[in-house]
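FAQ: What does a ligand-bound record look like?

Like this one, built around WQD:
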Amino acid sequence: MAQKIVVTGGAGYIGSHVAVELLSAGRDVLIIDDFSNAHPEALARIKELAPGNLELLERDLANPAHNDDIIAAVKAFGADSAIHLAGLKAVGQSVAEPMLYYRTNIGASLTLIRALDAANAKTIVFSSSATVYGELNDSPVDEAGKTGAANPYGRTKLIIEDMLKDLAAADGAWRVVNLRYFNPVGAHPSGRIGEDPNGVPNNLFPFIAQVAVGRRKKLMVFGDDYPTRDGTGIRDYIHVSDLARGHLAALDYLAGLENGGALDINLGTGAGYSVLEAVAAFKRASNRDVPYEIAPRREGDIAEVYANAKLAQKLLGWRAEKTIDEMCADHWRWQSNNPDGYNTKV
Ligand code: WQD
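The answer part, i.e. the structure of the complex:
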């Protein structure tokens, strides 16, 4: 019988790619999304790319008034497990509005755990982030690295990781993987789903893509005086489709476990690219200019962070396969085919 997976935030950037991977692998999917950072058109595109049993519950996991509906829907769906992606993720906003982040990210997680418990579906893959490592470790960073987030967004990720570990320690029936994403970029090779941030993109790749497609004049490079090979920040960019496959591998790993438990696993490539190297790669892939200007460093940024990705390969039998050039080519195909994201009038 098809495994039945709840995907919270499943209409979003990572979520839509995870939903396509799960449906393509024959899983039934229930997306729970409030569309606060996602577009209904993404659902039509998911169905186009991966026909299968896809259900939607449009509710806010962080709204107590929605709890009963969510618990009832997860039970009615007959969930076996969940991939938990729903949450706010803008570092700067979290500094300005910390309680919004604690209320939303932790509240949503508490509701999901209640719903899974009620459905006796005690398996969860949580969308964590390399941001939990802060600036405390030399790269490549492995899962035993020191953790200590430098902002409320990162602290919500750490709190939820620890909450899930405590849950698994108290009730051995719970199976938990905290996936620590490095920097997801790119888009499904079809160009039909991709990153469509609200307003001005915080992250590098969507900003570069919007400059290349002419939506923005130029990129501000936040500092070229870091102690790195070209002075700009180095990050471990991972193709969102590789990342999505990592979620399926994590679910399969948990399904095969004799007993419950909780562990943290990095999802990265193990390689780092600088801002200027990413700009150059994007220019090669798009054959478009990407004008930029060197600007002051961004508050809270670190010089260099990339993954030790060995544990995912050892435990999940998964590793990132796509190159930086494929990441740029796929990101560009999405952006050039959808200059205004999901609002593009076709
Ligand atoms: C990458 C590099 C910037 C924008 C954040 C979150 C992390 C995760 C991914 C959610 C840095 C530089 C960026 C720009 C620039 N999000 N940059 N100009 O900061 O590594 O990680 O997003 O999980 O949790 O912390 O990603 O893409 O913002 O920055 O020069 O307009 O690009 O300084 O060196 P980051 P990013």
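Follow-up question: can I read anything off the structure? Yes, for example: The CA atoms of residues 101 and 227 lie 32 Å apart.
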